Amino acid sequence: MYTIIDSVLLSLASVLVLYFLLVRPISKRNAASGIATPETRRQTLLQFMVFALRTTGIVFVVEVIAMLLLVVLHKLPSSLDPIVDATTVSLISAPLIYLWVVKPLYMNGESVQAYNLQANAKQLTKTFIAILLPSMVIFFVALLASRRLTMNTRLKSLKNTEWQFVIRQQSIINNNLNNIVSDLAFLSNQQVLTSIQDSLSDRGRQYLANDYLVFLSSRMIYDQIRFLDLGGMEVVRTNLNNGTPRAVPQDQLQSKKNRYYFTETIGLSKNVIYISPFDLNVEQGEIEQPLKPTIRFGTAVFNEVGEKCGALILNYRGENLLSELRNSRSRSENIFMLVNTAGYYLIGKDEDDEWGFMYDDKQDRTFGKDFPNAWEVIARSQSGHIDNAEGLFSFDTFHPPGLVLAQADEHKTLTDRLRTRADSHENDWKIISYIPPSSLASISKAQWDHLEFFYLLVSLFILIGSAALSFVLTTRRISQAALKANEANYRMMVNESISTIFSTDVQGKLTYVNPSVQTLTGYTFEELLHMKFTDLIRDDWKSKVMEFYVNQFEQQQEESSLEFPIITKSGEEKWVEQLASLLIDDQGKPSGFQSVVHDISARKQAEKDLLTAKQMAEEASQLKSEFLANMSHELRTPLNSVIGFSNILINNNKETLGKDDLNYLQRILANGEHLLSLINDVLDLSKIEAGRIDLEYVNDVSLPEMINKINEQMGGQVKDKPVDINVSMPEKVDLIRTDPAKLKQVIINLLSNAVKFTPEGGVTVRISTSIGTSIPTSIEVKDTGVGIPEDKLISIFDEFQQGDSSTTRQYGGTGLGLAISKSLCELMGYELTVDSKVGEGSTFTIILNTTDDTGKYSAGNMDTDTRRPETGTEDIYAALEGKRILVIDDDKDSRILIGQVLQNEGCSVLQARDGLEGFDVAQAELPDLILLDLRMQGTPGREVLS
Fold first, then answer.
1. Percent of the chain at pLDDT above 70?
2. What is 432-484 written as a DSSP string?
3. Which residues are CB-contacts of 95 (< 8 A; sequence separation ≥ 6)?
4. Which of 921, 911, 916, 920 is nearest to 889 (CA)?
5. What end-to-end distance do the CA atoms of the chain give, in Å?
6. To the nearest 10°, the Cα dihedral for 689, 691, 696, 701?
7. Confidence of residue 418 (pLDDT cuts 50, 70, 90)
8. Between β-strands 279-280 and 429-435, what pairing exists: parallel, antiparallel or unpaired?
9. How far apart are CA 551 and CA 535, in angstroms?
10. Which pLDDT band, with edges at 50, 70 and 90, does 830 fall under?
């Protein structure tokens, strides 16, 4: 039945619908046409608020009337309440809302006077009634049909759901019994049983007991497993014993010859299985507590020659089956029951009613007594549904006894080999799903309660829709007149626009252009109307532009943007940006284009100038890099002489030089080496930028060996600092293919930086391999130094960049090392990353490329061995002693320097200042070794070699 909340909600809905369907559209139209002013729009809003309050009062009064009518009609079915509510509210409120709300809204207020609806009031009223009355009749008939169809569909769906639940319960029982039959078949065919001749030996009895104990422990669904001889005496009996299986001693075994399950089982033929009725276990004439629902499964045992030698009995713990059935309830409102053929509950709606046939004081607690009408049908039917005053019942029948295990067939499953013997149904079970009348009523009520407000809203929408439609039909003529006026205003704005606007048909012929097109193209309005827009496009762009717009036309793309050059009437080239919209006709098919064109020539020229400047800057940078790369020899040669001669002076005169003179030479040597390092960085970077770095790959490079040697070389940098260098690597690391010199340069640079920026603490070099393999994946250099600010991490690999200016002042350097390292890594196909926190340290990681198809490097087992032989420095010097060595170099200082170093090692030195002279000396003197400058003036060293 209707409530006050429904009244409020419906009133609010009425107000919103009236506002969005009537007031808001009117206000927008008046504003668009320029009729309404801010003052008149405020008047409209105030009027609407008055109408909204009036509407709310009307709806409330109508609902009171509707409820009074429903009291008079209280004998109608409750399911008709929503239909009566909706129809009553609609029929009573329709004329009232129209007279007090809709008509005043149309006729009053300056904001709507432009529509002149006062002159059409009579036609407006007729149209409203003609639309409303048929709509309400159709709606009322549809409600009645919908109720009948919905109820039938709901009941059918509910029955289907309940039947699926019954079938699922049937499947649960089948699965459980099939598993038990399989267990019984397995246990009855054990070799110790099939080999019995007269009686079972003590050894065989012990063997069976052990097997049964193991079986009880693993399955936990049997309370007892027993083997009885032909006389009914227990030969072996094992009990689950509350989860602790135990074999019954021989002196406690009992005779079961008079028990029904033994007499039924011992008389069976081979492979026939007996299933007892479902009851409670009884010990010494008393029902065992706690209750033990039990089903006994038995089969006769035959030996190898086909003689019957006993019976095998399994006591199945029925609570397992009952628990699984109880826990599989599909919905909260249904009640599951399992009853036997006498109607006694095995699972009931009340646990106190279960197992009534086992107790003298519960003999009357049956399904038939609780539901006599339903039981009359269920007792004599196999399966089906019952829908009566007692509720909805869905049921099926299960036949547990009489299962026969057929002869084994490898093409049949266990279920296929089970068949039902139809000679007895005294132990049938009835699987029943029950929904009480109260639950059915709740389901029906919930459904109608859910739809009641919907039907009320629909009736209200029909009312408001009728009013809106009558308004639309009455004002169409006036709206068309207003539309023509708007079109005239639009055309005037287009003609006065400074943007170029034109339209074309599907063939591209111009159908309209505004006056500003003459400014852009130089053509007059009359000239353009005899042209196609493609006539203006530069010749080399025509096919491209045509293809673009043909594609837009075929794909029916609403809007597009394209830039292209045009040629004006005077021959001037201009670049334009054209925004094209697809025109759609009344049949929904494309009929042409409407475009807005902007002159972008100035922007295009600016882009061209910017591109030219960019190319010039790149060419200048390239020339700079090539110049520095070519200057490598000229810059390094004199500096090497300074360093070399300083070394010679120090080594040859260390004992004779004064302390100050020796210190001066050492300072010259140190600063020369520092300057050479800076020049090397600059020249290396220039070579990289100029693309003159060649990679020399070597197979089977050992990363552990490389890093250990680098660690030895770095010893001098940390000997006077409280810093330790640690190396961490797996026990086995595969060989890789790489450029060892470039990779070593990167690692040394990272390690030097780590030592330099770590005042105290430690630096760790770690090799990582992929999980489960020895393939190296990364090399990590981690320190505990000063760290890098987060805002500097992005630019740390840029040229001439360090953490900040204070870093350069404190630690020195050019900021090129990391830029060179990153570039070398990228050349080798590696990736160099950084992770750092200020005050905690930095971690630089070289991520190796571990794929084999890049050609960069791969794991070991290479077919070609290109490893360079490594010889110790001391062995080289020893080998040089007493040798005649020819030094060919066009730089005199270099010849003197190299000659002096070789003489200090006991060599005999010959010199030549160019390639031709060196060739003659070599032929005449036949030296043991030739040192040759490959980049000499005149005859280059490479030509001498060839």
1. 68
2. EEEE-HHHHHHHHHHHHHHHHHHHHHHHHHHHHHHHHHHHHHHHHHHHHHHHH
3. none
4. 911
5. 111
6. 40
7. very low
8. unpaired
9. 19
10. very high
